[in-house]
């Protein structure tokens, strides 16, 4: 079963990919894969939800750019342009 955050991420980013394609930004590849989010002892507090325990539902804290920033998305297009 997919996590709520996973589905929300794909909904948001598939729309961005579609809009980039419709505005003529020419995909440079047929696959868009983002690097895994690295959470370690140095940055774990940035992603921790205060008061959460092992049974807490929900998604990891952090912004949308933690997963796929515009700069990273630009690398997958031949003619990247800002999407706002």
List the helices and strands and how they pair.
Layout (H helix, E strand, L loop, with lengths): L3 H19 L21 H4 L22 H5 L10
Question: Could you explain the architecture of this structure?
Answer:
This protein is mainly α. It contains three helices and no strands. It has helices spanning 4-22, 44-47, 70-74. The termini are far apart.
- Total discrete domains: 1
Tally of DSSP β-strands: 0
The percent range for helix content is: 25-40%
Rg from alpha-carbon coordinates = 15 Å
Which structural class do you get from the secondary structure elements? mainly alpha
Largest sheet descriptor: none
The pLDDT mean sits at: 79
Q: What's the helix-strand series?
A: HHH
The backbone outline, from C-alpha atoms, is elongated
Low-confidence stretches: none
Number of helices: 3
> How much of the polypeptide forms β-strand, as a percent range?
under 5%
**Distance linking N and C termini:** 32 Å
Offer a quick outline of the entry.
The protein has 84 residues and is mainly alpha-helical. It has helices spanning 4-22, 44-47, 70-74. The chain starts with a helix and ends in a 10-residue tail after the last helix.
